[in-house]
Write a structure and sequence with these properties.
CATH superfamily of the largest domain: Zn peptidases
Oligomer: single chain
Number of strands: 17
Number of domains: 2
CATH architecture of the largest domain: 3-Layer(aba) Sandwich
Shape: globular
Structural class: alpha+beta
Largest sheet: 8 strands, mixed
Radius of gyration: 21 Å
Strand content: 25-35%
Strand order of the largest sheet: 1-2-12-3-13-16-14-15
Number of helices: 10
């Protein structure tokens, strides 16, 4: 991958963007695609839409959500402790003890998510087992109570993210918070950059969607506005190549073996077959992903837009979803971008994906 593409990915990861707070990363997305896009807009909802050949009679929407899970401050205690609500889905076992960043209007205030020590739990608390998120708080180290934390700039409605960044690992793997789904936004952006040099017959719209983690909201509004004939979402999916993953319950996906191509009710079978054919024709490694019904991805919202959209889903395998240290393999993302670029370059105005 080009150095500029890696730098773009790192910038996406390092910039906090929980659902409802995506503006800063939308700016990075626009900056990266400005040299390659024929049009570049941000809609009223916050979705950023970069297009190549936008006036073509057939429109293809590539969707990768740019938001991440996080927290939002909803109560400041008299002692200066911060209470929060989740943005997106969290496992409270993972949350305890994490270092976090509180993002205020004036800067970042560091903190730690606190919990009553195990030594001091009552028998009832021990029997209860899993702690509830509302029993946790953020400790920013204040000694002067509520006035001190407010003076530091913290206010109700500030967002919070894990204080974890981009970390290369062995084997071409990388760990970070928010690969779900910055990597999807990166893939569709990189696919647009590549297809911009391939003279596609169709219009290609690469969308960094917002608010996926709280209900696929951005994909709904973006798809309605673009009204695509074909829509392909890119998101992470559960890798199964680590302990405790039961392949009888989850499609087998491994890091470094290529992106997944979805087969199931949330994907048009003709389009999925086309993506497989495109991968094989370009010698791009791929894996098969299976879902019986709808998926918790932008593909779900795109498919039922207006009178229905020919929809596909490309997965980037990921370990430890919705934790501060999600792991992907960069080659899977690179291959996903090339697959989408080749697919878009191969679409014609005569294609018929009606089942």
């Amino acid at each position: 991958m080009p150095d500029a593409a890696i730098a773009f990915l790192q910038k996406l990861i390092e910039t906090p963007s929980p659902s409802g707070f995506e503006e800063a990363n939308a700016a990075h997305y626009r900056e990266y695609l400005t040299p390659f896009a024929d049009s570049l807009t941000t809609d009223r909802h916050g979705n950023t839409i970069a297009a190549v050949n936008p006036d073509a009679p057939v429109r293809v929407m590539l969707s990768g959500h740019i938001d991440e899970i996080g927290f939002i401050i909803h109560h400041i205690a008299d002692e200066g402790y911060l209470y929060f609500r989740p943005i997106g889905g969290h496992d409270s076992v993972v949350v305890v003890g994490q270092r976090v960043s509180v993002h205020t209007k004036t800067g970042v205030v560091p903190g730690v998510i606190g919990k009553k020590p195990v030594h001091l739990l009552t028998s009832d608390e021990r029997d209860k087992g899993k702690v509830e998120l509302h029993d946790l708080w953020i400790d920013c180290g204040v000694t002067g109570g509520k006035d001190e934390i407010i003076a530091a700039g913290v206010a109700l409605g500030d967002c919070v993210t894990y204080a974890v960044g981009y970390q290369p690992l062995l084997g071409g793997n990388v760990a970070a918070r928010a690969f779900d789904n910055r990597i999807g936004a990166w893939v569709v952006a990189e696919a647009l950059r590549r297809v911009s040099e391939m003279n596609p017959q169709v219009g290609v719209f690469a969308v960094a969607t917002v608010q996926e983690e709280i209900g696929l909201r951005g994909a709904r509004t973006a798809a309605y506005g673009i009204d695509p004939h074909i829509g392909i979402a890119v998101d992470v999916s559960f890798a199964t190549d680590y302990p405790s993953m039961d392949k009888r319950k989850v499609s087998e996906l491994k890091l470094g073996k290529g992106p997944g191509i979805l087969f199931g009710a949330n994907a048009n079978r003709k389009l999925s077959d086309y993506l497989v054919k495109t991968a094989e024709g370009g010698e791009i490694p791929y894996q098969i992903s299976v879902a019986a019904g709808g998926t918790g991805t932008d593909a779900n919202a795109i498919q039922i837009n207006r009178a229905g959209v020919t929809t596909g889903l490309v997965d980037v395998p990921l370990r430890y979803m919705h934790t501060p240290c999600e792991i992907i393999n960069l080659s899977d993302a690179d291959n996903a971008a090339q697959l989408l670029a080749n697919a878009c370059a191969g679409f014609t105005t005569e294609d018929n994906f009606i089942p």
